[in-house]
Fold Phenylalanine--tRNA ligase alpha subunit.
Amino acid sequence: MIKSERSMEAIRMKERLEAIRERALAQINETDSLDKLNDIRVAFLGKKGELTEVLKGMKEVAPEDRPKVGQIVNETRQAIEEVLDKAKTELAAKKRELQLKSEVIDVTLPSKRDELGHKHPNTLALEEIQKIFIGMGYEVVDGPEVEYDYYNFEALNIPANHPAKDEQDTFYINDKIVLRTQTSPVQARVMEKGKLPIRMISPGRVYRADEVDATHSPCFHQVEGLVIDKGITFADLKGTLAEFAKELFGPDTKVKFRPHHFPFTEPSAEMDVSCFKCGGKGCRFCKGEGWIEILGCGMVHPHVFELCGIDKEEYTGFAFGVGLERVALLKYEIDDMRLLYENDIRFIKQF
Ligand code: DAH
């Protein structure tokens, strides 16, 4: 190649570089995505890109022109890189802006909350009863629901032929084992252990072969109470249960004891509380009576002491049994016991 042609080659190179630069910048300007921008970078500046192709023609350029052409190649690369970087920054910013817009949080939308349950009226009533007795120094004791006939009946002075045993429509597992019909067997179990004095309550499920209706269920709950010490009298029973009624139903609550019969206590009574709705005048709530029956109680029968191995000459005591559902229905003014067992959260949440 003669010299003048070689000089021409430098000029052609320069023109080609300018053309590349213009095309690159035009393409970058039109680009609207980061991916396309990257394609452009590869097409112009990559290993097999246009600029590299141009460099391959350097050997055709006159040696004295090469530094000049080399400089133009560098300038072209720099110019394209600069514009590419700027476009990249701008597109990235735009993309982020769009993303932020599309991910806007509407703070006025109702939130998705975890469903928290609610305490059952029975649980609320039991917690209150427990609080009252724990406050008086009582222990809370558990007992088995599947119970020996012995503890459920015999140890409580209810012999095999006693009518109470028929009355209590018992679920028998076999002739020695029953589903307990009352929480009273826990009394016998605690007394038998012989640790005195005793001051305890025992809440739990009890079972009777009853049909379901507004006031009956084959499975319900009682809270048993037992106090045994030297010198315990009926006055202690009255004072304790009067205080219990006041704390449960309000400070103006009065109590009334009616003589009754339970095989395991002597004397025995049922306790009524003055109606906390009408204060005793008589209303729909207390069926015009002014009083509401609330529990059974009495002085522990000497024969029960004997059966459970406690010296009846040295010790006396009182016992009582409260129906938990009865308290819950009264306290929360629920008029059908079946509602307590349906577990409808809309119902339960009202208390
Ligand atoms: N267990 C009795 C019942 O189911 C309730 C009861 C009455 C318990 C008198 C007692 C009591 O401890 O002294 O009807």
The chain has a mean pLDDT of 92. The longest strand covers residues 219-229.
